[in-house]
Structure prediction request, 109 residues.
Amino acid sequence: MGKVVEINDGTFENEIIKCDIPAVVDFGAEWCRPCKAMEPLVEEAARDFKGRVKFGKINMDDNAKTATELTVMNIPALVFFKNGEEAGRAVGVISKKALYDKIEGLLND
Prediction:
């Protein structure tokens, strides 16, 4: 762990829903500048929470099924999971503090 895993419609369930630790999924697209701005922060969080939280990344242009099932309408969107269930989300560019606070909330619930 400690890195952001590429996820697609076919791997989402095994990688995230069946994950035995909390997970954060970054929904974005190649053409999305705000998504690109969030990438370094998500990668930093993946290193800082290594072994405690799994981080995944989904390209919405190529994996519309998962985005549709989760009703992800705007990007960038971070969707937080605990015990296979959605536990929150953040839409748009957020600060490091806001991201880390949400992750700490996942771990402390």
User: Anything to note?
Assistant: The chain has one domain: 4-108.
